[in-house]
């Protein structure tokens, strides 16, 4: 953080004016209701807003506590449940709303006693205490307009000060709810999302205590600024020290993760936003929390999990910085783990995980988290199982509780009974035996009982994934997702850096083939360092400007990658695959670009691949209608079941209500794939499937039944799928598949399960 702060912004000056007046109100002897009445008057006046209202959470509902502009008779009468109306939505989602026409919003709920029908514009922000919404501050205007960003920032800053006022006056009831939940001593079973597979038992250890900011308004702005300067210096020293001491035994993508994390720590934009919050009149702690709250709200608005995870790194750094500046540095890592432990946290950064003793750390449970987070990359390298999205885990679990974590099953047992402990121990023993038996298959071929060889490959995207080739005995890498290097990097990876990664992958694979998929970015996987118009946000990013569409428009990006791939594969065969091809001309354009880059490299006396094989991913259903035109120009084709399935059903695979609604074994999916197999059969094109579907034994069996003989799957699935293959009579299955497809039942999965059981197929269950 620089020592020469920029002049206060207009937003900071506006907020400071309001905070100065609010400080006087808070210091007065007026009762809480009187103070809130004065607050809405000050905010409405300073923002030139006809309406300003404060809703507080009481008894589980949001109660109108003070207003300027609405009917005074509605005060303490109008109540909204969490999630009800605009105010309830803001509190439930902990998000900001800014609408030029409030009534047009689908969550709008009209309350006639307020007289709000006169007002069109609406903006509201949550009032947050201990990471929970305890109320809502909102403004309204009769003219339809969106409030300026400056006004929204001012409201968010004021909401922080209101949080302190409300807490000091005991106007909200969140503490009672937290204490009641914590008082529960019964055994519980929590569920979540598997982030890193594995099982572990230990006592509950909270990563860090809650830090509640008691003072939000600064007495001396310059003193607060210098406190933050000192905290930034100390934090950066800590990060540098941890990054230099991190050891995993082998190099891996986690090293790039830590370098990216360091770049965030030194980011001037982040420090500038904290400086601006101090300019508005906040204390150092409140300024950091103010920026952190804004980051959290942005995270909730980002559809792409990879970008959300980059924001989680800033969240981790904010937590570290606020602990330093407040003098509350104690974490479980610094105090040391004395027993086998399961770590509990809302979220966790990669550097913070590295502080823990790996001999004692048996697992991590997060309230948030996702598969693509930086901390998950590091946890996987450390061999620590992680369960994410475990809602309310920090209120259901007490420090010192016995926990049994089964990340693979997505469960956490809290204060388990003896019967549950015995079952857990038995499963752990069976799991260890099963892993040993699957490991014994590593060097055996993936051949069916009737002698049909199946090509079993793995999907990868990180340097560390390459080790899975030898661990699983896979025949190669059927899908290397090159965009991972772009998504974990804070800047666009240069050609030399790309080339180094691709060469390392090819060297590690040896004689085994590697299929490199060109970058699949854009849409909801936008890169922060790409100059994309922020106003051009897409309502359906999965079907938007992404993958090959983006790469062909940003031709320079694809040219650099083409050269990096060719130079890395010098003297070897290069397999390159283009994602999300919608029409033949897109594939031809991408292939021609590679051909031109090969000619350019040859002209400049660069070493070239011995051969280049070109392929496409079939993810867009409509491509099947022009496959006959593409086949003469293709070397291989890979069916991407993840995107293909969501497009076939018009169902977002990330939507929680739709995730389990449509089955991969549905006749819609299976008939489509069977049709592709039939179209490709008479050509020389190599056909395969990549995606989660092929990594599940029952689904993989069905794919083999319709004619697929090449699977590229997650490394964790190789052992189970190989066991299935070696137990399968493929001829018998293919003889019965036409009848299953022609006469599907209402539960098609049961049809395949019944067939597998009747024929002794090993599904690992």
What does this structure look like?
The protein is built from 28 helices and 22 strands. The strands form three sheets. Strands 7-14-13-9-10-11-12-8 form an eight-stranded mixed sheet. It has an eight-stranded parallel barrel with strand order 15-16-17-18-19-20-21-22, surrounded by four helices. The radius of gyration is 29 Å and the shape is globular. This is phosphoenolpyruvate--protein phosphotransferase. GO terms for molecular function: kinase activity; metal ion binding; phosphoenolpyruvate-protein phosphotransferase activity.
Rg is: 29 Å
Strand order of the largest sheet: 7-14-13-9-10-11-12-8
Residue fraction in strands = 15-25%
- What is the CA-CA span between the terminal residues? 55 Å
Task: Quickly give the structural class.
Answer: alpha/beta
Low-confidence runs of at least 5 consecutive residues: 2-6, 174-183, 532-537
Query: So what's the overall shape?
Result: globular
Number of helices, counting only DSSP H or I runs of 4 residues or more = 28
How would you state the average pLDDT, rounded?
81
Report the count of strand segments.
Answer: 22
Helical proportion, percent range: 40-55%
Keywords:
eight-stranded parallel barrel; 28 helices; 22 strands; disordered N terminus; phosphoenolpyruvate--protein phosphotransferase; phosphoenolpyruvate-protein phosphotransferase activity; transport; PTS_EI-like
């Amino acid at each position: 953080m620089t020592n020469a702060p920029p002049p206060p912004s207009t937003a900071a000056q506006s907020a400071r004016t309001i905070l100065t007046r609010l400080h006087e109100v808070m210091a007065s002897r007026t009762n809480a209701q009187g103070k809130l009445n004065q607050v809405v008057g000050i905010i409405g006046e300073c923002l030139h807003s006809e309406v300003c209202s404060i809703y507080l959470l009481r008894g589980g509902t949001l109660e109108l506590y003070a207003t300027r502009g609405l009917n005074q008779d509605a005060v303490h009468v109008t109540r909204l449940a969490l999630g009800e109306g605009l105010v309830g939505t803001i509190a439930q989602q902990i998000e900001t709303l800014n609408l030029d026409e409030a009534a047009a919003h689908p969550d709008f709920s009209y309350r006639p006693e307020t007289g709000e029908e006169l007002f069109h514009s609406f903006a509201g922000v949550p009032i947050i205490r201990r990471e929970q919404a305890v109320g809502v501050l909102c403004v309204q205007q009769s003219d339809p307009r969106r409030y300026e960003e400056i006004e929204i920032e001012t409201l968010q800053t004021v909401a922080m000060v209101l949080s302190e006022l409300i807490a000091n006056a005991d106007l909200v009831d969140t503490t009672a709810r937290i204490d009641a939940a914590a008082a529960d001593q019964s055994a519980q079973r929590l569920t979540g999302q598997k982030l890193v597979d594995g099982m572990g038992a230990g006592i509950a250890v909270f990563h860090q205590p809650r830090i509640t900011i008691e003072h939000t308004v600064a007495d001396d702005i310059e003193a607060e600024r210098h406190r933050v300067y000192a905290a930034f210096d100390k934090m950066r020293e800590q990060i540098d020290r941890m990054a230099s001491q991190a050891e995993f035994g082998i190099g891996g993508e986690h090293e790039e993760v830590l370098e990216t994390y360091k770049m965030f720590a030194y980011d001037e934009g982040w420090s500038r936003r904290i400086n601006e919050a101090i300019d508005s009149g906040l204390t150092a702690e409140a300024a950091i929390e103010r920026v952190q709250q804004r980051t959290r709200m942005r995270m909730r608005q980002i559809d792409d999990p990879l970008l959300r995870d980059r924001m989680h790194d800033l969240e981790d750094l904010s937590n570290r910085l606020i602990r330093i500046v407040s003098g509350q540095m104690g974490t479980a890592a610094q105090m040391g783990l004395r027993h086998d432990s399961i770590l509990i946290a809302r979220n966790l950064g990669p550097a913070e995980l590295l502080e823990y003793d790996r001999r004692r750390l048996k697992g991590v449970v997060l309230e948030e988290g996702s598969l693509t987070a930086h901390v998950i990359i590091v946890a996987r390298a450390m061999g620590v199982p992680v369960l994410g999205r475990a809602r309310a885990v920090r209120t259901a679990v007490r420090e010192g509780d016995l926990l049994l974590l089964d990340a693979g099953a997505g469960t956490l047992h809290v204060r388990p009974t003896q019967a549950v402990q015995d079952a857990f121990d038995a499963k752990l023993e069976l799991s260890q035996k099963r892993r040993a038996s699957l490991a014994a298959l590593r060097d055996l071929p993936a051949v069916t009982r009737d002698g049909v060889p199946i090509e079993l490959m793995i999907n990868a995207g990180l340097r560390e994934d390459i080790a899975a080739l030898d661990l699983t005995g896979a025949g190669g890498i059927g899908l290397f997702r090159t965009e991972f290097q772009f998504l974990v990097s804070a800047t666009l990876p240069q050609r030399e850096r790309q080339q180094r990664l691709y060469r390392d992958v090819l060297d590690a694979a040896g004689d085994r083939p590697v299929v490199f998929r060109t970058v699949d970015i854009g849409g909801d996987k936008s890169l922060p360092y790409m100059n994309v118009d922020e106003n051009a946000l897409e309502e359906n990013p999965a079907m938007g400007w992404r993958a090959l569409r983006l790469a062909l428009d940003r031709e320079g990006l694809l040219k650099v990658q083409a050269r990096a791939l060719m130079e890395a594969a010098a003297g070897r065969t290069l397999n390159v695959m283009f994602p999300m091809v919608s029409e033949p001309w897109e594939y031809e354009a991408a292939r021609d670009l590679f051909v031109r880059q090969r000619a350019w490299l040859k002209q400049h006396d660069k070493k070239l691949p011995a051969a280049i094989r070109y392929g496409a991913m079939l993810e867009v259903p409509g491509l099947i209608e022009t496959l006959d035109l593409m086949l003469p120009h293709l070397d291989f084709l890979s069916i991407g079941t993840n995107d293909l399935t969501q497009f076939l059903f018009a169902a977002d695979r990330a939507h929680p209500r739709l995730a389990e609604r449509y089955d991969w074994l549905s006749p819609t999916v299976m008939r489509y794939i069977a049709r592709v197999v039939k179209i490709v059969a008479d050509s020389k094109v190599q056909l395969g499937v990549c995606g989660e579907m092929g990594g599940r034994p029952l689904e993989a069996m069905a794919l083999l039944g319709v004619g697929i003989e090449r699977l590229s799957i997650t490394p964790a699935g190789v052992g189970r799928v190989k066991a299935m293959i070696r137990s399968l009579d493929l001829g018998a299955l293919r003889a019965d598949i036409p009848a299953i497809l022609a006469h599907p039942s209402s539960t098609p999965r049961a049809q395949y399960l019944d067939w597998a059981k009747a024929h002794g197929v090993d599904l690992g269950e």
